[in-house]
């Protein structure tokens, strides 16, 4: 059973924005894994999108500030690398926020079997499937850079993994 204080801690932690995609919270992104409360102490566990993610320290600081502001005297932020983060942990609302922000959200992750061939990525601006990958890495390592041939706009695509 979740206590009122645990709910308050989760809600405070869930307000923290991802510094690389500031329309997403860390809860939308699925990297907020756990929030445990013990009296005035709270421990939040996050799993970064990849082990070398440069945003981890900023997220740790922002979590500490949010939980301290919520009245917790002692805050610990743990980073768990296993199990590895997957785009399957992103919320549907988070994927919609990406699309509204102009980033094509990831599709479902495939496990096992043949390597999937992505024939196209839908443009988040005009909806066209007439797109092409320009660069395997976009503004961050989690994204690839695409171009829409219909509206001629470049856009990031959040890679599924």
UniProtKB/TrEMBL annotation:
Highest taxon in the source lineage: Bacteria
Pfam families referenced in this protein's UniProt entry, alphabetically: FeS_assembly_P, Zn_ribbon_PaaD
Q: Which residues form the MIP18 family-like domain?
A: 8-77
Where do the PaaD zinc beta ribbon domain residues begin and end?
Answer: 119-159
What is the protein name stated in its UniProt record? Phenylacetate-CoA oxygenase subunit PaaJ
């Amino acid at each position: 059973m979740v206590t009122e204080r645990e709910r308050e801690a989760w809600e405070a932690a869930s307000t923290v924005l991802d510094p690389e995609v500031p329309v997403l919270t860390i809860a939308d992104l699925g990297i907020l894994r756990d929030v445990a409360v013990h009296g005035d102490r709270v421990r939040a566990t996050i799993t970064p999108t990849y082990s070398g993610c440069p945003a981890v320290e900023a997220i740790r600081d922002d979590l500490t500030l949010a939980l301290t502001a919520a009245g917790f005297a002692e805050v610990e932020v743990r980073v768990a690398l296993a199990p590895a983060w997957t785009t399957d942990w992103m919320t549907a609302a988070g994927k919609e926020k990406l699309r509204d922000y102009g980033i094509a959200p990831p599709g479902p992750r495939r496990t096992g079997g043949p390597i999937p061939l992505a024939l196209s990525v839908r443009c988040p601006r005009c909806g066209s499937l007439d797109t092409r990958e320009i660069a395997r890495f976009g503004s961050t390592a989690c994204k690839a850079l695409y171009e829409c041939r219909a509206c001629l706009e470049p856009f990031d695509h959040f890679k599924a993994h």
